[in-house]
Each structure stands twice: as structure tokens, then as C-alpha cells.
Amino acid sequence: MTDAEFLDAMNAIQQGDKTALHKIYDAYGDKIYRLFLGKVKNHQDAEDLTSEFFLKLWECASLYRAGQGHKCWLSTIARNMAVDYIRKQSHEMPVEDAETVGSDSLTEHRTAEDTVLSNMNASDILSQLSEDEQDIVRMHIAAELTFREIAVILKRPLGTVAWKYRNAISKLQKLAKEGRLT
Amino acid sequence: MTRKEIEKRCREEMQQNIPDKDALWQKIESQLPEQKTMIQPEKPVIKMHTFYRVMAGAACFMFVLAGASLVKLGTNKTEMMKAPASDSSTAIQMDDEAYEDNADDGDDSADNVADEIAPAENSASANQSASSPKSDTADSVTAEYTEGMKKYSDLEFHDEYNSFPDNDDINTTPLSADGQYFNEEDVLKKSQVFVEVLITEHSQITTGEILYTAKVNDVYGAEKIREKLWNEETLTILTKSPYLLVNGHDYVLPLYLNEDSDNWNLSYECAPQIELTKDLQVIYHNGWYTITEGADEYEDGAEPLLYDSIGVDDFFYDRMYLTGYKALVELYTKFDEMQA
């Protein structure tokens, strides 16, 4: 979806056009879901947040300003929602539980040594990386954001983003070379 | 498993986790309110104390004007009352405009951020093509292999400034490599730092030399130098290179500090520098073999690029390639390892 198409859709949403919201959902629903899943690591929560995200978009369409780069705008909203959600969760549960927020259905926190990589799903694979690296890999691969867009969202230099991404992929490649990622 | 395969694996895994998209949409749609309630952006509101202040000002103005009119013009009462009434409304209107201006300023700052996200679309490539001298020889050679090739002039650049150094004004001394052919290892050894810069200005300070001013976007090298360059934010580079750097274009420059002049110099001047397009593709010559390796490993390889020749002694115009940014990170990694 181009910036112009997105702007048209947002204008249509302001007129109450649900098909316009559906168009945006079609284009970005998967990517937004994957971004949420990466942060909260729970399918149900990621679905709820995705649903909440599009309801928010419906209500806040008038706040969008053309020229902001719509993918950055969407990703920033999603990221902030996920951060708020995690903060809220950690306030609601005892400290010892808060440390394992989001680890319920997909993965437990595991070290590289005790994980059998051969049967890993995406979250398992990415759990081998640092939080920063996971964010960048998800944004680049799952949300298909460019390094420049990621740099804007994370407020980091472009080179740092590219560098961290490169290190993350190298780390996974090393695991694969050791026969622990098939 | 190559890095590209790793990416593919991650992508496949992530796609498997997608929920039933239609069901999720139905859930969203069912929660959409029947009547659209829209959150409007906050508009500036005139506060009451400001309103009183404006009204008091208008009243004073009205009083003074009325007095002046009585003394100087001796006009009748009706006329005196008319003038200040319109002025007071103007004062309020002006105050509103001031608020609107403030609101506009807010938008402008947002626009500025947006400009950084999505820089202007204009291309400087036309300038580049127009200004680069081409020899007949180069034309005849390139004509043989240009079929279907991507051209430098087709690419889009940052182009905030869109001004190519005018060859009529710039007098670069023809540089010859003097047997010093480009060798990646030597250039990396000589370099103290790699900088990603946006060229903002250029000026010719002496015959054959150009002083470029650049905005520093990123720095690779020893921590001390990185800090120094970060703090400076802008950088001046002195060079005799006939391969002119274009204002408004992004470059990746290997540099060393000339301690005599305290200027940063290009580590290898007799070749086009690595350049970045607006969509972060990397333009480079095949002497940078690490980038080619990175392109094979990370990207879909590198594709040849039809580059403008700067003359008969140009050994690089038919050795230029285009690839993705990830390939460049491979060069940074190698530089980093050599520095360590």
C-alpha cells in the first residue's frame, strides 16, 4: 500500500467507510499481528491487541498526517501499544511472574545450551537473540520495514540497526552451522 | 545454511503463526461502533484570561484612537465609534491567527520529522548526468552493453539540496593512480573511519581541490574517533578527486585524518566513492570485493550499473554495481575486525 492509498483509506475511514479499514487490515493485519506476537509472545494476547489496534485506527483516523510515512506511523502505534500492554501486565502480577510475561503458550525462557533448535518455531529461534535484535529482526522480516524505517521507529542510527540485524542473523547462522538449527 | 536461507526460515516460521485472518476481521468488525465517533486533533482554545487581555488591549486602543480623532480631526461621534470597533475585531482575529500559526508550527515540526522519514522525491540524477563529462570513447564502449542495464540516472537519491558541483567552476587536477591501483586491503588499512554522510555543500578552495561539507549520519571506526565525529555532526572533507560528490546525495566514505592539515581525506581518491540511493541500495565498484561477497551471501547478488564516465582515463565507469544495504554491513564488519 502506498502512502497515497493509505491516506485515501484514512480519509474514507473518517467518513465511516468500513471497507477502507478492511483494506488496511488486508495489507497490514499480518504484519501488525506478528509485531505484537514478537513482543507479547502469546497468540491470544497478540490477537486481542491486533483487534484493539484496528479499533484504535478506526477512531483515530483523523490524527494521521500525510507525509509521516504510514508504515512507520502504524509500527510506532503498535510498538507503543505492546509496551503499554507489557507494563500493565507487569503491574498486575507478582514480581516473580512479571519476569516471565508473555512466555506462557509459545515459549519458556531458555538458554542456547538447553534448547533443541531443530524443532524450534519462530519465537524459539528468535529467543536466542537479545531483545533489541529480536525487535529489529521482527520489524525487518515480519513487518517488512526497511532499516531506515526501523531506525526512525527505534530512534537509533541507521548503521546501528543494520549492524545489529547483521549480528542477529550471523548468530542464527552460527547455530545452524553447529547443526542446531535445521 | 546461508544468511539468506536463515532469513527465509524465519519468515516461513513467522508466517505459520498467522491466525485466521477472516475470523479476526469479523471480530474487529463486530466491535466497530455503528455510529462513527471520531477523535479530533486538539485545537488551540483561547483561554479566558487571554480573551480578557485582548479585549482590554482593544479597548485601550479604541480609547486612544478616539481621543486622537477628537483632537486632530474633530470628526463626529459616530465615526469615532466605528473605527475602534473594527480594530478590536481585527485584534481578536489576529490573536486567532497567532494561535493558528502556533498550531501550524506544530504541524511543521511534525512535517520536518516526516521529511526525515520520507525525504523529497526529486532526483538529482538529471544534474549528475548533465554535469558529468562523457568521452566519445566511453559512449561507444558503454553502448555495447547498456541494453537492459540499470542506469545511474534512473536511481533516486536523498536529494535535499539537489545541486551538483558545476564543472565550469571546479577545476579538478586530473588525478592518476600512479600505479596505486585500488586494493581493498590497503584502503581498509589506511582508513581510520567509515562515515555515512549526506553532502550538503561544496566549495573550491584552491585549484584542484574541493572542500565538501557533509552531515554525518553514522560512523564506523575506533570509539574515540566515532565520538569525535558524532560531536562534530558535520564534517569537512578535502579532496582532489575528479569523481565529484553530489550535494544532496548520501555516501559511505573511508577517511583518514591528515594530521598536518587537520582535515579528513578520502582514503582512495581515484575512484568513485560508495554511494547510497534513497531506498538504501549501494552503488560501488567491484574493487570492494567484500561488498560483492556480502551481496552474494545476503542479497540477490549485485547487478551491473551503467555509470557516467568522467573521461578516457576513467577505469571505473564499467565496473560499477548495485546491491542491497546488507551487503555493505559485511564491509563494515571486516573493517571492524581489522581495527580490532
Give short descriptive properties of this protein:
heterodimer, A: 182 residues, mainly alpha, Rna Polymerase Sigma Factor, Chain: A, Arc Repressor Mutant, subunit A, 9 helices, 0% strand, B: alpha+beta, OB fold (Dihydrolipoamide Acetyltransferase, E2P), five-stranded mixed β-barrel, 10 helices, 10 strands
Q: Can you walk through the features of this model?
A:
The complex is a heterodimer of chains A (182) and B (340). Chain A has 2 domains: 1-106, Rna Polymerase Sigma Factor, Chain: A (Orthogonal Bundle); 109-182, Orthogonal Bundle (Arc Repressor Mutant, subunit A). Chain A has helices at residues 3-14, 18-40, 43-59, 70-92, 95-98, 122-126, 131-142, 147-154, 158-177. In chain A, 68% of the residues lie in helices and 0% in strands. Chain A contains 9 helices and no strands. Chain B is of the alpha+beta class and 340 residues long. A 5-stranded mixed β-barrel of chain B has the order 2-3-4-6-5. The relative contact order of chain B is 0.11. Mean pLDDT of chain B is 69; it is low at 73-144. The interface between A and B is large, with 61 and 52 residues.
Describe this structure in a few short sentences:
The complex is a heterodimer of chains A (182) and B (340). With 182 residues, chain A is an all-alpha fold. Chain A has helices at 3-14, 18-40, 43-59, 70-92, 95-98, 122-126, 131-142, 147-154, 158-177.
Strand content of chain B: 15-25%
Order of helices and strands of chain A: HHHHHHHHH
List the total number of helices of chain B. Answer: 10
Order of H and E elements of chain B? HHHHHHEHEEHEEEEEHEEH
**Overall structural domain count of chain B:** 2
Write down the oligomeric state: heterodimer
Q: What is the largest interface, and how many residues per chain?
A: A-B, 61 and 52 residues
Overall radius of gyration of chain A: 18 Å
Question: What are the segments of chain A in which pLDDT stays under 50 over at least 5 consecutive residues?
Answer: 95-119
End-to-end C-alpha gap of chain B: 27 Å
Strands of chain B, count: 10
**Proportion in helices of chain B:** 40-55%
- Average of per-residue pLDDT values of chain A: 76
The CATH homologous superfamily of the largest domain in chain A is termed RNA polymerase sigma factor, region 2, helix turn helix motif
